[in-house]
Amino acid sequence: MVLQNVVFDPVEVLERGVLEPLDVGAVFVERLVVMQADLQRVIDDQQLYTRMTIELGDGAAHARVSGLGPRMEARVRILPGRDRVPITLAVDHARIGWLAVPDPLGHWIASNFDPSPQLARLPVRVLLGTVAIRAGRFEVGGDGR
Prior knowledge:
Layout: E1 2-4, H1 10-16, E2 26-29, E3 32-35, H2 36-44, E4 52-56, E5 61-65, E6 72-82, E7 85-96, E8 99-100, H3 103-111, E9 125-128, E10 131-134, E11 137-140
Parallel strand pairs: 2-9
Antiparallel strand pairs: 1-2, 3-11, 4-5, 5-6, 6-7, 7-8, 10-11
């Protein structure tokens, strides 16, 4: 991660030997890799998503929710965001049981669960390198392979 426009008290650094930023203009995530098992563990810890599984493939994730009622599934892709939101989730090929959900309805439903707009409400701007979904991992930055 790269912190931009960091404000700190140099006296605190000299006296205590600890850097405690007072303000940060932006956080740039230059390189990050999240493995599928780690992502699944984070999802499992969320009360709302306890019955959701994610399979990361090349270019998209396949999300499934099972348990009470019919199984739901959809393809989830990550698209560039705009303004202060660095990414947007795109959901398509959604199904509830055997019933195909029209893509516009799937996008609308997904927009209610998409956490990326919350990044715009943070007190610091969040910037991301190129985001990609690869088989078994989620990547920010990297060489694009």
